[in-house]
Amino acid sequence: MADPTVEHAIKPADFVKPGGGFTGFLQLISSLLFKLTVYIFLRWIPSRAAHPVIPALYTVYLLTSLLRDYRLRSAIRRYLEQHDLADPDASTHLKQLAERIETSEPKLQDKKVGEPVSNSPSPAAKGQQSQPASISKGKGAPSYAKVAAEGSEALKGASDSDSDATAVAGGKPRAAGPRRKVGRLTIPEILKALVFGVSTRSPRLNFYILLAHTIALAMFLDSFFSPYLFPSHWDYNLSFARVGAISPTSAKVHVRYPHPLPPFDGLQEDMSDELGFSGILRDGLQASPEPVRVIWRRLPELGERQFLQDGAAAGLEKETGLSRRWERGPLLRLTEETDWTTTAVLDNLWPSTRYEWRLAFVHNNTFTPVPERAQQFTTWPDPRLSQYLQTRNAAVARDSDEMGIEMPNEDSSPVDDPNHFSFASTSCVKPDFPYHPAQFWAWNWLLKLAGIGSEPGGIAQRNRIPGFDLLYKRAIEGKAKPSLRFLLQLGDLIYADVPHYGGPTKDAYRKLYRNLFASDSFRRVYENLPTIGIYDDHEVVNNWSGKTADGTTLESFPPANTAWKEYVGLANPDPLDEGENYYTFRYGGSAAFFVMDTRKHRSHYQQDDDEDKTMLGERQKDALLRWLGAVNSTSVFKFVVSSVPFNTLWGGPLDWDGQKDSWAAYMSERGQLASVMQYVPNLIVLSGDRHEFAATSIRDTITEFSTSPLSMFYLPIRTLAEDHGAGAWGEDKLYKYIPDGNHKWSEFEVDTRDPYKPVVRVSVQVDGKEAWQVSLLGKPVRRAENVVGSIAKSLLELLGFKPRRWF
Question: How many angstroms separate the CA atoms of 807 and 804, rounded?
């Protein structure tokens, strides 16, 4: 008989997780690729290719996860059965052992564990109860009752991954050995599952991992379909009113007002010439296509305000002649054919004057609900005062120097000085990008209820454009007037083809513009800052040109151009030629602008680069050359606006379209223009499109500032270098390159108050902070004599009054 003090513990084998094989490998790869592509889509590049890829990866991961989880459950079940953890009689056997009841079961008698095991009293221990040989008589040996209790607990938790592996096999009770854990996961196993998305022996953890992948897919779908899900861009519930182009004596009002009049009880019947009636009943009020008009009035200056207040207090409003009466402006034609948009011009205004305006119903002369309050704008200063103010400022500066008085810091954008103003330029805007998890619809409303991110521009706001929020905080918020006179938007104001292309229809493009103008981020800017611009490629389709490779007109352009004009183009200054989109404007005598259309007349990039290949078309190129001659001696700084870079430094193997979509593919025409532009003093090119900032020079005399995006992705890949394009032989040179940042714009302070030291101060803003500043010193420009002065001089010479010669 074996010594009962010898422990014969039968230890169950550890549970070994079965290998995943091809299914496990496919699960791991699909999880990694899924998470990577979702992150890239939401935070880096919302590519069209993500639409089929991400759902496909999720489907693969879902199927492999379910299959892998099923196999793991089956393996755990087999393991439990092999160790009798699922045997319903195991508890009975353990209880019998605990009560020291001898069993006659033959299987138990035949069981051998080293030495035979018996429940009979041992002759070596008379007067003592016999104990199973598997239980040591040493100190701390567990009792049978404890073993039975542990066995019962093991049975209760047999289906759980954390149940105990007690020593019961094939319905035969075994001596209780050391306890084994089946499903308790270690921290490395948990981290591995979270990072790689692989299944574990814990069904609960597997469920949470799959749930996380499902939420990531839902966020992708939310971002992908967001322009089409929100009622803010439906045709009947978006209204706005803003000011576009401004001059010294006029301002363009841009309005969208769907169904401005409520339903009317009385109906009006359409008449027919033949029958006298048509039988079609229409809303009587809606029969008028011009139900709304603009009303406006001048805002009094500070001294006038006090005068009006004193006069009102004395009851002398009429006697003062300064009663604040609203003036009737033009009627607004609002029809469904133009998506309820229209523009009107307020003219015969005073230069450098603040005005406020509203909309009013024609039928009862009451204010419309939109806009809720009067909006304001300030006309530009009279350019005829430029030389006078320069002379006055020079005299003041000279006297201050003689008296040792330091001149105070001037406003960077004064209202009444035609020689000093500021503006900004940027391009590339996509709402809700980069995507923030707080914007997800499942908990977005809950965060707003809790007051988290619910403020204007907050992280919980939908249809948010962080670039416009940052611009608003810097240039508008908390200021009596904006620090900028206008904003130049250089294209890609919508992304019609990213990530989803709605097709070449007006309705598809209009939806995206409605979504843009419904954004509170953009609304806070365009209601306070005049915004004008030009389109680039994504307003139509990526990298489009007016002529396709076979010479035909792109079918997407007509509907896209219609929608762009309705929401952007008609608020711009009038085009130079009828039916075109390029235009010019001036600010005082200090700056002149030519905004080019680099898409509509563009030849396909695959065409041979000869004299026939064009980006502007002959008509526009001729207009540009004539404009350069006209402003050469009438404006100090000349700004040529191009939606794509004029320099050729973008490119390289990782930038497949840098040399195809910019002026680098049109070197023949660029050379013709540069040969003229290089002799025009103080010429600056403004551009965008590349989602980076670069300051460059072309032929040493032309300076270009290319700035983008305002709210879109940037790439960690560097694609600009001086050995690209014309930089290889020194024609194009790099001054500054800032590739990083989702939100970029450049501010230009034009200062020609000193005619001998004109300067443009440039500040580059990246993610709301100044990343670079530079001062571009200009050359003095001898202005051409005005017509009256030249005629008078000629008459004096004819009369014999010639200037005295002193030398």
Answer: 9
Using alpha carbons, list the distances in angstroms from residue 540 to 176, 224, 238: 77, 18, 22
pLDDT confidence of residue 25: 94
Least Cα distance to 117 among 98, 130, 101, 127 occurs for 130
* Residue 699, pLDDT above cutoff 70: yes
CA distance readout (Å), 747 to 347, 424, 425, 710, 776: 29, 4, 7, 13, 13
* Nearest CA-CA partner of 648 in 631, 671, 626: 671
**Rounded CA gap, 637 and 487, in Å?**
17
CA distance 288 to 792: 55
**pLDDT tens column, 416-465:** 899 999 999 999 999 999 999 999 989 999 999 999 999 999 999 999 99
Residue 753 per-residue DSSP state: S
User: How many C-beta neighbours within 10 Å does residue 340 have?
Assistant: 22
Nearest-Å Rg of the Cα atoms of the chain is 40
Q: What is the pLDDT of residues 209-243, one digit of tens each?
A: 999 999 999 999 999 988 777 655 677 889 999 99
Helix (H, G, I), strand (E, B) or coil at 600: coil
Q: Which amino acid is at 391?
A: T
Residue 255, both tokens: 């309005």
Tokens (6 digits) for 232: 């803010």
Q: Which domains does the chain have, with CATH numbers?
A: 21-228 (no CATH), 236-260+291-382 (2.60.40.10), 383-430+465-777 (3.60.21.70)
Give the residue among 242, 747, 252, 234 at the shortest CA–CA distance from 523: 242
Strand pairing category for 420-426 and 744-751: antiparallel
User: In terms of Cα–Cα distance, which of 342, 336, 337, 252 is closest to 292?
Assistant: 342
Angle made by CA atoms 303, 304, 306, in degrees to the nearest 5: 70
DSSP 293: E
How far, CA to CA in Å, does 478 sit from each of 294, 401, 474, 519, 725?
Answer: 28, 34, 9, 21, 45
Q: Could you tell me the two tokens for 605?
A: 């990039």
- Encode 715-742: b = buried (16+ Cβ within 10 Å), e = exposed: eeeebbbeebbbbeeebbbbeebbbebb
Q: Do 618 and 664 contact (CB within 8 A), yes or no?
A: no
